[in-house]
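Reopening this one. Same input as before:
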Amino acid sequence: MTELKEMNELFDRLFPICRSITGAGVRETIEILQEYIPLTMHGVQTGTKVFDWKIPKEWVIREAWIKDEQGNEIINMKNSNLHVVNYSEPIYAVLSLEELKKNIHTMPHLPEAVPYVISYYKERWGFCMSQNQLDSLKDGNYQIYIDSEKIDGELNYAHAILPGKSKKEILISTYICHPSMANNELSGPIVASFLYNRLKKWENREFSYRFVFIPETIGAITYLHQHGRELQEQLHSGVVLTCLGGKDMPLSYKKSRNEGAPLNDLMEYLVNKEKKEFQIRPFTPLYGSDERQYCSPGFNLPVGQFSKMIYGAYSGYHNSLDTKEVMTIEALVDSLNEIEYILKLQELNGYYINQKPFGEPKLDKYDLYPDINAPALRGRSSNKVLDSRQQLNQILTLLNYSDGEHQLIDLAKTLGYPLEDYAISIDALKEHNLIEGPFFEKGEILS
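Same output, byte for byte:
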C-alpha cells in the first residue's frame, strides 16, 4: 500500500478507541502503533509522585447512556465516546430535565457539535451532546447511567530510539490521550509513526532520534521525571507534533522558549531568507501542548512545536466536528514531507572544519576547479560540471568559513542559494578530505 492508504488504515483503527490519560485505551493505542514503530511501553503506578503532580487512579469506563421515560435512548457513548465527560464518576439515577441539564455540556455557538469535556483531577460526572439535541428534549424524567470506576493502575507511555552516528538526539514527541478526534489527536501519532520509518531509511543519520508517545501534560511531566536528565545531556533539539491536518494550510512552527534552540534558527532562516511558506509563532506558556513542559524553566529544553490546523483556531477543536474529512489524510502526508525536509536540513546545518586551512587548496587537483582559465569555462566549478558557478561559489565559501565558528546557515546567507543545494558541495569536499563535519557543538569540535 502507499503511505496515504496506510495512514488512512491506521486512522480508522485508532479513531474509535476511547482514550484518556490512563487506561486500556492508551494501551490499545500503543499496541496498534507498535505494528508500525518498535515502541517500548512503560507503566508508572498510581500514586507515584512526579514533581508537583501525582499519577492519578486509572479510569475504567464500560458504559454510559441517557434514556427517556419510555426507555428510548437519547445518547450512548457506544455511538460516540465524546458523549461522556472523560474521567466521569459512576452514577445511576432518575432526574428531571431541569436537574439533568446541570450536568449536560454543549456548545451553543456550534449547535451541531458534541464537545469534548474532561475532569481528570476533580470527581464529577457528566454527559455531552449537541445544543440542538438538548433543545429537543421534552420535560420529564430521564434515566442516566455511567458504569465506570477508578482503580489503582498505571499511566502508560512509549518510546523508541532510532540510533545515528552521534548520541546527540532529536526528540519527536506526540500525545495519545484524546478520544475520537482527528486533527487534535491522531494527526500527531500518525505522522510521528510514518516519520520514524522515513528516517529509518536514511543512510548515515547524523543524529539519533527519540520518538515519544505520551498522554498530554501529565505524561510529559512523567516522562521528564524519568528521562529528563537524559534529555538535558543528549538533546540537540526537539519538536512536539500536534494538529498537523488541514488541507492547503502552511506548516507552522512554535518556537522553543530556549533561545538557542537549533530549530528556532533554522526555521527563521528558511522563512526570512529563503522565503519558505512556513509560519513561525512565538513561544508562549499560555496555550499549546507538551512543549510547555519540555520548556519549563527547570529543563528549558530546545523543543518547539509543529502544527498546521492549529488548536483553538478551527471550529472542530475539542468537539465532534474534528473529523477525518476536515483534517484529510492528504494533509498528513504533506506535513510528513515538510517535517522530513526540515530534519534533513537540520542534519546538514552544523559546523565544518577546513582540513587544509592555510591558503585555498589546489582545487583543480581534486577536479573541483577548471585547469584552464578561458571565457567558456568561467561558469564552471570543474572541467566536467557547468552550473553557472554555483558549486564553485559554494565550495570557496565553505572552505573559507569552515572554521568551527560558523554554522552552514551563517555562510549560506552570504550567497543566497537554497540550503539543500550545499549537500552536493559538502559531499564533494568530504570525498577529498578537504572538510570535516558536520559538528553540532563547538565543544564537540575541540574534543
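So the earlier flakiness isn't reproducible anymore. For the record, DSSP finds 14 helices and 19 strands in the chain.
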